[in-house]
Specification:
- With about 230 residues, the protein is of the alpha/beta class.
- The chain has a single domain (about 10-230), classed as 3-Layer(aba) Sandwich (Rossmann fold), CATH 3.40.50.720.
- It contains 7 helices and 7 strands; from the N terminus they run βαββαβαβαβαβαα.
- The chain has helices spanning about 15-30, 60-70, 90-120, 140-160, 190-200, 210-220, 225, and strands spanning about 10, 35-40, 50-55, 75, 125-130, 165-170, 205-210.
- Helix 1 (about 15-30) links the parallel strand 1 and strand 2 (about 35-40).
- Helix 1 packs across helix 5, helix 2 (about 60-70) packs parallel to helix 3 and helix 3 runs parallel beside helix 4.
- The longest helix has 28 residues, at about 90-120.
- The radius of gyration is 17 Å and the shape is globular.
């Protein structure tokens, strides 16, 4: 199991929302250093964080960030996009853009940092999914998060022999810029971050951070019409 205290973490998308809350929570639990990445590192506001420029879908940017973060033991793949492209009507380029950020981005960052974490004696990776990994209500976003969930499950098997544990975090609505226009109950970023770090320290395979994530996960074995009542109409 991974101990946060004394760890060196890298959080993608670390300048706002859940990412910013994770950076703060890591320091509160005694992390030695936290790299907070953003497209514009000037947007990183935590006074102790190490700002790092990163575009997760750009291999050159990923390689440059990894070269500067050679002491990492904990990777949190949090950066994501919310394009929500419709499969029938939206430009295919929009679907590809969602996958570049939400699926290929975490893959590129993970591939770059696994050798680093391994050289540093092993550690942990947390991938931020969504309840929409399990229910297709948001077009390309749901599909990209479902693909990331599958990637996480495969990586967990590949990395266990290399001394790296993998946790998947699933959340519904969180009170961030992304959900500003949604009038539904929301978790706070601080609550989600705390549960995520609890899961890392406990060696949990998955963290379900709210009731809706727990309900949808529990319903995956039911008839599809239970998850999609539109089918029964």
């Amino acid at each position: 199991m991974t101990t946060i205290e004394g760890s060196v973490a890298l959080v993608t998308g670390g300048s706002r929302g859940i990412g910013r809350a994770l950076v703060a929570a890591l320091y509160e639990r005694g992390a030695k250093k936290v790299y907070a990445t953003a497209r514009d590192p000037r947007t990183v506001t935590h006074p102790e964080a190490v700002p790092l420029a990163l575009e997760v879908g750009d291999p050159a940017s990923v390689a440059a960030a990894a070269a500067q973060a050679q002491d990492v033991t904990l990777l949190i793949n949090n950066a994501g996009a919310g394009v929500n492209a419709n499969f029938l009507d939206s430009p295919v380029a929009d679907v590809r853009r969602e996958f570049e950020t939400n699926f290929y981005g975490p893959l590129l960052v993970t591939r770059a940092l696994v050798p680093v974490i391994e050289r540093n004696g092993g550690g942990h990776i947390l991938n931020v999914h969504s309840v929409l990994s399990w229910i297709g209500l948001a077009g390309s976003y749901s599909a990209s998060k479902a693909a990331l969930w599958s990637q996480t499950n495969s990586l967990r098997l590949d990395l266990k022999p290399r001394g790296i544990e993998v946790t998947g975090l699933h959340v519904g609505y969180v009170d961030t810029d992304l959900t500003a226009g949604i009038d539904e109950p929301k978790s706070t970023p601080q609550s989600v971050a705390a549960q995520a770090l609890d899961g890392i320290e406990a060696g949990a395979y998955e963290v379900l951070a709210d009731d809706i994530s727990r309900q949808v996960k529990a319903g995956l074995s039911a008839d599809l019409a239970a998850l999609y009542p539109q089918l029964a109409a």
